[in-house]
Design brief:
Length: 336
Amino acid sequence: IRWSAFPSLEKETIYFVGNFTDLEIGNEKRLRFALDIAPVAMLVTKGQNSQISMANDLFTAMFGYDEHEVIGKSVEILLPDKYRSHHHRHREAYLERPNLRPMGTGKVFYGQRKDGEVFPLDIGLNPLDGAEGETIIVCSLVDVTQREAIVSEIAKRTERLREELSQMEILASTDALTGVYNRRALTKQMHLHLLLTYDKRQPLSVAIMDIDYFKNVNDRHGHLVGDEVLQIFARIIQSQIRKGDILARYGGDEFVIIMPNTVSEHAYTTLERIRQSVETHDWPVQGISTSIGYTTYHPHPDDIPTALLVNEILLEADVALYQAKQGGRNRVKRYT
């Protein structure tokens, strides 16, 4: 008998599974001896119906059957009901061209104990030629319940880690006070949308806005009220922009809106709507308004979408914001 080895996860030992190529199959005593000394559950099947002809003590311990209860029965008795019809077809196909199938290939099967418990199995098959051409299959079986539990636990931990990393990424890119993108994320979004704009040859409008005389709000009413005003301000802006637009807190009371594929006229309409919504909102303090500056970038074939170009676009919007304030505040100004 030739033996091959593979590790068992169940008991942290090495199993030696027999390869019966040197066994004279006519000698049933030698076959019984081989099964009895095998350190894994084993059974022998015969004929086209794969009737069980022999099983060792480890098999009976694994499945809960006494040997005499399974002798003469098809191996399907050891399978859950939902797998039996499928296994019947697979068994017939295998018996047409029987071949050595070692354990450890990663394919998991399911067995059913006498008490009805279903459990995962790793199965090895070793075909032998019996008397008068009868096909004999020596089956080695290992309960891999613990391995499946380990794999399942690894999958759960991996998913938890993925969720935690995703949450960390969200936290790293989100302004804690307002829940919109922070300045770090704004830089990434500007680069991304500038590349898309350049690739699709579409206009990109970018606006910078702040709250008029916001310093007075903090000085007169305190930072808690100031924080509340900022949160409401961000919500108003979000309610007026499209799903594909990007809102980020630039710093302090300054916010930036990225509007992909938006011409100047459409950008102005959106920004004026925001300005009016801010002006007419029922604020916890009086006199809240916003000044907005924006620019519209039209990609040119000679342009290179670099960090320098990102800064130039933001600078143009900032200049327009300054012009809006110089013009009396509470207004929208396009960069010219």
